[in-house]
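Trying the structure run again after the queue cleared.
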Amino acid sequence: MLTTKIQQSIRTSYHNLQSQLDNFIPRRAQNYLVAEITHTLCGRYHPSTRMIVAEAGTGIGKSLSYLMASIPVAILNQRKVVISTATVALQEQLVQKDLPLYRRITDQNFSFLLAKGRQRYCCTEKLASASGVDGGQLAMFTDKPDIQDIELLQALYQQLLSGKWDGDRDAWPTPISDSIWHMIVSDKHSCNGSFTAHRNCPFQNARAELDKADVIIANHSLVMADADLGGGVILPEPENTIYVFDEAHHLPQVARDHAAASAAMKGSVTWLEKLNQSLAKFIALSDEKRASRFHREAQDALQQLIPALNRLPNQFEASAFDEGVYRFEHGELPEWLATQAQELKKASQKLNQAVGKTADLIAEAVKDGTIAARLGDPALSELGFYLQRLENLAQVWHLMAQPNREKGAPLARWLQVSTERENDYFVNISPLEIGWQLDQQIWSRCVGAVLVSATLRALNSFQFFCRQAGISEKNEDGVRFLALASPFDYHNQAELLIPKMEYEPQAPQYTGYLAEKVIEYIQPNKANLVLFASYWQMKEVAEKVHTQCIKNGWSLQRQGEKSRKEILNQHKMLIQCGKTSILFGTGSFSEGLDLP
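Done. Tokens:
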């Protein structure tokens, strides 16, 4: 119900906004969006379905609109708000700009926090082990780091100990390579908050603060991960939450990717053989009498999995692959492979359970002091490595063995040639329809939902998006739909140029030619954003235009060379000074950025 307090709170924030922003111009579309979100969440259009799907063009001010509407409704009804985005750029804008601004203009007292997945944080124990001595990384990592890697690991550890770094990958001033991060990343198996050594780990500290926050900023993947766990495990319970999905056009694809699975055949054999060699070591650290059964079960499963996965690639003809891909028509497996999938499913699940039980026994021994943490923690970290891969392998063969439903779209199943190993294939499975899952896990349970984006419609209709996202378009179901045009005068202020290119993108001369064309289109003393579909090509073009940019007195910044925050701050400063600033970026720079 729309109360006087909610109305007054929104009026207050809007009135104060005018004094906070220079050259503030009221936007009719923004006012309308605020009103419609508020009415929807207060039950004006439907008593139980409180959902609005709004396409709002660039420049309307979507983020401030949903903040001004959703937060008062939630706070005054003792609810939580989860704002989910598709890009880190928009998360940073919300945390660093929009939410601090809204907190200055509102009469509501609220706290907000950015929630990240476990894999954005380092594990203190892993980092200590990896940075201790040259080549001191855990045994399961085969690539020895060079001296620069060792120095980085030691710097990370020292900054973490001193409290100058909080263990968040995104908070480190320079990018941390995947190979280094993989060595120190937190995982759910070894980084357990019940262990003394992990109680003050970066991830545990961050997660402890979530329960206190009124507004949580997350990404679509984290929301889906929580939904898969039943809801209310990582984020607040859906029954107590108003969800705001910004960049909502990404949500169906993120949900589909989250439900998909992939694993290499022979690539899996490589780490399974290492696990086989390490089993005795793990058993020796646990209660051997209790662990002996799990040891036998694990060995039995390994004796099935390793030979089967080694043989499997040889059963496919290379000529059957189209550009490295073999698709199973209608998702149906041949009878022999369906039988093999059932056997691999059972063996991988059996192995996953046996290794998981072994890890539990070691964790129990560390907790009660039967074995020293200095012995148990490295073993748990190594087991965590294997358990993550085992869970994925078990999921792959579970989905491969799963029969298609009589109703609805089948699972898509295909093989892809590995570029890493000879005569190896990746097994891939993905659902085609994911809407029913979104409805079951989120829409039917939440207090309210706001879905906004500049691009939700196809052919002026929400039908395609709704079908993908599991949202009903029927009037009686009460979902509110809204389409608001951008206030920008694109017809008079924008220019679309399609250059005549002399080379095809596949030609070896293309990248050099592209660099020449980029220089032609740069506007001096203005802001310039150049987007690339390929990270490799962005880097190559940046190197080719670097000298010319210096000669012209232009500033060129490339995504990945510094943190996004540093790049954007430098860009804004240059524009304010009337200088030429050029940003090179890929997909994540194409949306969610508030640029001058």
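The chain has four domains: 4-110+214-256+435-484, 118-206, 263-316+329-404, 495-589. Worth checking whether this holds up in the mutant runs.
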